[in-house]
Amino acid sequence: MDLIGGCRAFVSVSETGSFTAGAALARIPQPVASRRIAALERHLGERLFDRSTRRALLTPFGRDMLPTAKRLVRLADAMEHDAKRAKLRPLRLAVPDICPTRRLAELDAEARALDLFLEFRLAPPGERAELVRTHEVRAALVAVPADEGTWTLPLGLASAVEPEATVIHLESLRPGRSGRPARRVWIQPEDDVPPIRDRMFRIRDSVGLRPAQVAVADSLSSAAGGVLCSADLLLCSAEQARELGLAWRPIGEIRLARGFDVVAGLGDDAHRLRTQLWAGIARCLGASDPGEAR
Prior knowledge:
Elements: H1 3-16, H2 19-26, H3 30-44, E1 49-50, E2 57-58, H4 60-87, E3 91-95, H5 101-112, E4 118-122, H6 125-133, E5 139-144, E6 151-159, E7 185-187, H7 194-206, E8 214-216, H8 220-228, E9 233-236, H9 238-244, E10 247-249, E11 256-264, H10 267-275, H11 278-285
Parallel strand pairs: 3-4, 3-5, 7-8, 7-9
Antiparallel strand pairs: 1-2, 5-11, 6-9, 6-10, 6-11
């Protein structure tokens, strides 16, 4: 039986002395209040009210049970209040600093519709998992190899000028005899992780580029600024290139992709982020269409 519902009806009727008024106080129909009290009486094995009069008078057993019923109702109300407050406690989520503010705001709004309140902390790839370990955040989007990622985004090369070719081969960047500065490929800090950085360095060496031609930038802004004022290239996703006003092409010699997964202190947090908010997170990570993040 619904013990709390029965006790709530019992307390309300006892306070008003009327089944009709008590039902109104408990915000339930009068027949429902009567059924709940009858069920409570069957459960306890004794009558709570003397029904031989027009008013709802407590029996001696009912008077004995009333203080306990009131305590149970107060505890139930306190539990519901605490549950509402707990739902409002934000889930602190460490995210890549490449996530646009607009996309994070959209993800926050999407989460609120699910009674989940997010609080974001931007952090580089090497710090996000550590923030979970030290309990500074409840969850983090961490970089993983693309074949292990819940979200994966293809990477290519972006330039300030629209290339004629449909793909860019790194071997085409080999220095010639023109005397012009060699073109460089900038790796942004988010991609300064072994699955991406080390593969880029191996391709650089195998096609005969100079070591300085593929390098890790201090920041995304400095890398993008260098690309905008030169013939250099930025390793990035197609959506990121659009945001920066750059022309994007795939890499001819290699297929690279960012991989992301969730690390969380609680399994439930990780599950909700991977399932209920999958599409919104995909957009934050750089997929204009969530179908791209696969």
